[in-house]
Amino acid sequence: MLFINEGDETPLDKKFHEIHNLCAIIYDQLTEIFSLEDYSKLNSTNFSIDKANHVDIEKFENKEIHALDWLKANDLNEEISQVVVKHVTMSVLADFTNFIFESLSCAMRGKMTVAFALLRKPFTDELLIFEQILYNDEDFINRFFHDGEPNSYDPSDRKIDKKEIIANALNKSKPNIIFNSELIYDLRYGKTLGKGINGFSNHALHIVTKDKNYKTTEQNLNFVFSTKEDVQDYWKNYYFFVPYLLIYSVSVIDNIIAKFLTTKENEHLFNVKVMIRLIGILLWSEWQDGSERNNSKIFQVLSEKLKLTCGGCSSNIELERADFELLLHTGTLLCPKCFSNLINSPDAIKGLSEFVKLLKTLNEPGTKKKGS
């Protein structure tokens, strides 16, 4: 519904179709969390009952006491942590994806006032919750569950050091070689940056704005008198920061849920998603320049790490840029001779694992990296 196929009729200028489809692909990395069996463990938590040491067992078994209240009564804080993190993450994520879907849908149809307005909650409030859970879930649970006072976990509280939260989340997001904490902050909260959410969403939500950084011009009403040229500028700015923040958001969320999904199959699933996001951010950076950057070295490293032998026809395969673009769009790596999908082959599993481990070393203490 979000992906634009060749020949589809849409108000969106054709030059934005490719970058919009990148957003649709990354969005699908979020929605699959709700649909694929691989993520089913996120919907439940198992724990043992010790009848000799636990209290209120009969009340719990008869459903006379809420599971979380029973866990709290028995000081089972580790189990509380698992339940609350899973529940909050999945619940907030459901809301997050709803807003992102509608925003992308509106942008595709040229309804830019609504598209910008819908970005505020997911990227300024909900993403900040994910970042706090990723960096220190114990602290978040203490404020959200054990304290429970909304003022103690309100992401819009001006006392919160959002820059520090973003920087801390980046340090925990592995691999991370493509994000800059200052840019992420400015795109979400900065008032002086012309290409961020703050000014655009305030214009979208308020008919007149008085802040000097995004003040309504004389004899104007925000977004109301927009021309075709204005809409082109809206699209250009929207597709500058939305792909970047969306790719970052999925990285944060995957790092939260990965600790609950530790099988080899899950590890490979996450590695494929990392690869797709890396390809996406490379293409995003090229799109910003309006021409292809010299990313040949990165694609060459990818190819070297993924030296594949087709199990179907025994062909030795050297991957090219087009193969990685196919991986981005379809999630597959095809043998050029027999067209077998090699993404789950032993070579691909090993190669992706080695490459992602290489990326993760760039996060280790003492590694010089910009933006963390």
Describe the structure.
It is a single chain. With 372 residues, the chain is mainly α. 58% of the residues lie in helices and 1% in strands. Strand 1 (308-309) and strand 2 (316-317) form a beta hairpin. The longest helix has 32 residues, at 77-108. The radius of gyration is 23 Å and the shape is globular.
Computed CA radius of gyration, to the nearest angstrom: 23 Å
Mean pLDDT: 91
Largest pleated sheet: 2 strands, antiparallel
Order of helices and strands: HHHHHHHHHHHHHEEHH
Shape: globular
Low-confidence stretches: 367-372
Secondary structure tally: strands: 2
What class do helices, strands and sheet pairing give? Answer: mainly alpha
Strand order of the largest sheet: 1-2
The percentage of residues in β strands lies in: under 5%
Please give the count of helices. Answer: 15
Fraction in helix: 55-70%
User: What's the end-to-end separation, in Å?
Assistant: 36 Å
SSE arrangement:
Layout: H1 17-35, H2 57-61, H3 67-73, H4 77-108, H5 112-117, H6 120-135, H7 137-147, H8 162-172, H9 181-189, H10 197-205, H11 228-257, H12 264-289, H13 296-305, E1 308-309, E2 316-317, H14 321-330, H15 346-361
Antiparallel strand pairs: 1-2
Considering the chains and any ligands shown, give keywords for the structure.
mainly alpha; disordered C terminus; 15 helices; globular; about 60% helix; two-stranded antiparallel ribbon
Summarize the structure.
The protein is mainly alpha-helical. It has helices at residues 17-35, 57-61, 67-73, 77-108, 112-117, 120-135, 137-147, 162-172, 181-189, 197-205, 228-257, 264-289, 296-305, 321-330, 346-361; strands spanning 308-309, 316-317. The chain has 15 helices and two strands.
